[in-house]
Amino acid sequence: MFDVLEILLLAAGSALWPLLLIVVVLALNTDHPVRILGWFYLGGMLTTISVSSALVFRFQGSEFLSGSPSSADAWLDLVIGGLCLLAALVLHLGTSGRGPKRFHKRPPSNKQSRSTDLVEKLVEKGAVLSFVAGIVATILPGPLAIIGMKNIAELEYSTSGTFAMIVLFYVIMFVLVEIPLVGFVFAPEWTKKAATDFNNWLARNLRALAIWALTIVGAVELVRGIFAAFGSG
Prior knowledge:
By secondary structure, this protein is mainly α. It has one domain. The chain contains eleven helices and no strands. Helix 1 crosses helix 11 and helix 2 runs antiparallel to helix 3. The model has no long low-confidence stretch (mean pLDDT 79).
C-alpha cells in the first residue's frame, strides 16, 4: 500500500510540469480550446503510456530489479532522495536570496527553451498539430515519472495490473489538462475564468510548490532506501 501511495504522490508531483500549464494557457486564448486540449491530451497520453510501458516491462525483466534491495533499490532510493532534498534546498535558498544566483527569483522573461517554443508554435497552429505537440512534449519522461515507472515495475503486478497503474499515473499527471477539458464541455465561460485565475495563482506559487514536492518525494525516497538497506541487512 505504501508503494502505491508513493507512486500516486509522484504522479501528483508530475502534474506540476510547467509545459502542461503553458499549453492550457495557450488553449484558453484560442477559438477552439476543447479541440486544442483534446488533441494535445491524446498525443501526450498515447506517447507517455507507450514509452512508459516499454520502460516498465524492460525494468521488470532486468537484473537490476531482480537483485537484493541492498544491491539496487536501497542505494538508488538514497541517491534519488538526497538529490531531491538538495534541489529543494537550493530552490529555497534562491527564494530567500541566498545560494547560487542562477536559482534566485527573477522577473518574468520571454526567453524559453527550444522545446517549449516548439510546443507553443505547434499548439498555436491548430488542433491537429496539437496532437504532434503532445508527442513532442512528452516523448522524454520527466525524472519523477521515471522514478514512478521504476516503482510500478517493482510492484510485480500482472501485465494488466501493471498497465492499469501506468494509465492511472498519467491520468493523474494530466489532471490540469483534463479538468479544463471537461469544464469547457459543460461550462465554458466559468472554466475559462477559473482556469485563468488558477494559472495566475500557480505562476506565483509554483516555486513554493516545487520545493514542497521535492521535499516530500526526497523524504519518502530516503525512508524507502533506509528501510531497504536495513531490511536486507
